[in-house]
Amino acid sequence: MNLASLVRELNLGVRCCHDKLDREVEGGYVGDLLSDIIANSKKGDLWITRQSHQNIVAVASLREHAGIVLALGREPDEDTLEKATRESVPILVTDLPGFEIAGKIYEIITGQ
Amino acid sequence: MNTTYKKSLAVEGGNFDNAGMASIEIKKILKDLNIHDDILRKTAIAVYESELNIISYARNGRINLIVDDNEISIDVQDEGPGIEDIELAMQPGYSTATEHIRQMGFGAGMGLYNIKSCSDRFEISSTVNVGTHLKIIINRGNNL
Prior knowledge:
The structure holds two protein chains of two kinds.
Chain A: H1 3-10, E1 13-14, E2 27-30, H2 34-40, E3 45-49, H3 55-62, E4 67-70, H4 78-87, E5 91-93, H5 98-110
Parallel strand pairs in A: 2-3, 3-4, 4-5
Antiparallel strand pairs in A: 1-5
Helix pairs in contact in A: 3-4
Chain B: E1 5-12, H1 21-32, H2 37-57, E2 60-67, E3 71-79, H3 86-90, H4 99-103, H5 111-118, E4 121-127, E5 131-139
Antiparallel strand pairs in B: 1-2, 2-3, 3-5, 4-5
Helix pairs in contact in B: 1-2, 2-5
């Protein structure tokens, strides 16, 4: 399942890197503690968080995440978007809370 | 053939605007050197946590990377408050982070613990009001 399909099915907003949505989503990780994300998430994960500041970009880039989903109507800061564009990290947004969007993404990518 | 790659990067304390950028640069270097994914992951985590420690707590610091055929060596030195009780600081969950640092999702007290977990050899020394020195070695295994 690639990002573009998830964006379509879940009506996610795309805030940058429209040209990177062909990326495969291999799994997901939910969290706001950056030490937890950097240590325990995996390459190809879609990271769901409510952190919207620019430091999320380095974490996603270092772990080679498929992208980041900002939950609960959070919008990325301007410098977050600049960095994300530079590092090719797609930033997606949803009004749903983290729990709900994680459940929906899980259902789709595991086919359950 | 014995080849060695060296790189030294300065990190400014308190500057969260560029947090993680030194780590990204080091990861790109290692990728270009065709370092195996699993070794790359461990190095990225160790370097990121080291970089964030400098930014969160020190005035300034430096990350020195040396890669040879056998291992990746990361030497991190900072000028700052130092660590009074290293044993306590190594415990997962222990943190002296300010509220501001925590609000950004840092300061969970996992930094030094994560670094040690990713290292094949790890040494830490610190002098209060002078600074902290980390020596991190990650073996390349048979990935030459």
